[in-house]
């Protein structure tokens, strides 16, 4: 779940904006509400509250740090009775209704709760809702019933896998999520060969999208945001061949990502006016996707670039960015507490509610003594969404950044 999937977020914003009633000119400006104390970050959670909260919990779990109970409780309390999640419900005690803008990406973020364990009722209801809104092509759109996109389909695959489901067996009209992803991958000829598109263009053509490709690689591999390091096939992706299986589609996507990374090891932004600038979020997504497939050499090179250059970006972007970098560190087997001299875990935890006392004390002791045998070893990863980043990508990409699908 990550700081990515900006395309999905922009789509959600457009839908929410269209659905919002116009305010009367004579109405006084509402008094800003205080943010929940259990929420990570201090920016408006209207469009990404559940997503970034989930990323924060997943990242701490990856680093072996126990998330605060208040933060976990806030997340579980956001669920609607039917199992779905909206980005933010200011009053969770009020029942969800037709005006509650639930979406697949926030709902799929329950893979954080699946990783933490002890929340089976919440995850089972969420999975049930996701299955109920699966499209006939086997995929999912950001909004239930919307056209399938690579990022949303991939993050839902991650949620299904985290909950113990077999994504390939979750079908509508005989189509699985993998069928949808195969239909969103570009052919091996022409520009963008082997990449994934976010969605088809209006004329039905497919345009390569780095964020969607990173998400698509993870989805095609049947992996969620929790990817253990060293579990890939250990081989760099070869030349693109016509994909008839999800595994081949993942290999094609990984090869495209490797080709798109610059000599320095990072992806370039595609936001109008920001071309030729590094894209930190999508680079982290690419690291995770390549590491998940076992393309260790390129993943390590790009992670090394992030380690040298991304600390300031994370500080400016907030908890979801810290979480994404922690997950990228885990995917490559690196230590997120020594990210070019920055302790990403400490920075992330400082952006949320107070940590459990026993964990805080142990962490402080480890920092003071610089004890290499600290109990908080790195054993986890990402990733967001998705959901096309603020956060899919994971795939999820800073969910607040503006990126064209």
TrEMBL record:
Keywords: Membrane, Signal, Transmembrane, Transmembrane helix. SUPFAM superfamilies: Terpenoid cyclases/Protein prenyltransferases. Residues 1-24 form the signal peptide. CDD domains: ISOPREN_C2_like. Residues 21-40, 349-370 are annotated as: Disordered. The chain crosses the membrane at residues 378-396. This is Terpene cyclase/mutase family protein.
